[in-house]
């Protein structure tokens, strides 16, 4: 967006901020300061604005600015490592309920996307929407075979409006990046990038359908979590048809009690489902606020949740998933030294960090919590404060971990709403240990080796050349003249570890080749045991090499 085109939008944003008495935000951007003199001309102060706390004023201002700014506020509410807690709490309450567009436009959109008249697609299509949000709205419908469904339809022209508003937000972010005194902590351009990515995902309803389908497959039994089925013949990029489900919002405690549902069992099940999504399946619902998590009132003795809205899903790189799980286990067992070591080993912090100082900082955060009964300890709050503390030690977190932090806050909030006395630690600890035991068991490792064996055999002839090239790179690195003696010591230690790791990998590959040949050749009765012995020895060599 060119500078001239952005001026009207910037003036509108500034006027709304001033009207809600957000003077500190205007002062932070030096270019806005002259606008304070024009406050009477730009906007009249909103009634009661002066009495509201700053977080509530910001929430109301974003709501007035429109749906895209509401989305930005929702994303910003997840960045508790960057913004004060009182503002994050207020922004977390943002809802993007907006007036619906006409049912005739929705009908036309469905017919255009699915290339058929509405009467051929559905036996009944209700033009009055069930719900309406900033990106899309939902209509009830019935298929010709009698199945009840809901049809999610994107708003007409939403792509161009989002592109315009995102361009304005990017311009505002650039101004904040240049002029805001705490820009390095707030990182406004990173926040805008997160909003842009989230909106791009939400605009593709076929992607949302694929996410729903995968989550349903992960919880195929439907005992703990029910996911509506996707009707792919009635789904396109701008239209999504899902099985219609029934229930109440997870925060409707009165309705849950009236139905006789066991809230304590439901709360514990919600915590278990979260850890299974993250650490068993590595695919989790990342927008799990009560409006998207319903409760099935027809199952009283064995309650379950119903998931909705799959536009924002999360997953972690396998390495981060492993390190995060180990950090949780160490946190449950109050092993602060282990937490410090894991943060460095995971690469989240530079290797130059003093582990004793990091351990002391972690202990300072965690110990006050462990003086309380476990049922009163907020795991989400502990994790947030750990991330905030770790930032002093140059912590670098991927966006997926921030998304996970937000989901943990949502899940714990729902759990405590259903059962204020729930012991999150007692529920989560055994579930996590069981998942890790199954995930990294010997049987699973052998299965993974068996699956990758053809790939390794195919690459085996190239291994000598790769080892030679790697050793040559290590040798040339050792010959470099380094001015810093400490860096020279670290480089030498790293080179030694690389050589040992390469030798261990080469030895493991040789043993694996021997095991494969013995297994294929067959022969005397004892040859199978020798092959298994070689395979076990090769695994040990690979593990030792990987640890180095």
In a nutshell, what does this entry contain?
With 548 residues, this protein is α+β, with helices and mostly antiparallel strands.
How is this structure best described in words?
This protein is α+β, with helices and mostly antiparallel strands and 548 residues long. Helix content is 61%, strand content 7%. It is built from 24 helices and 11 strands. It is globular and about 75 Å long. About 1% of the residues have low confidence.
Keywords:
single chain, 548 residues, 11 strands, 5-stranded antiparallel beta sheet, alpha+beta, 4-stranded mixed beta sheet, 24 helices, 61% helix
Structural class: alpha+beta
Distance between the termini: 50 Å
Mean pLDDT: 80
Molecular shape: globular
Put simply, the count of helices is: 24
Rg of Cα set: 28 Å
Q: Give the proportion of residues in helices.
A: 55-70%
Tally of strands: 11
Provide the β-strand percentage band.
5-15%
Low-pLDDT regions: 479-483
Q: Could you describe the largest sheet, including whether it forms a barrel?
A: 5 strands, antiparallel
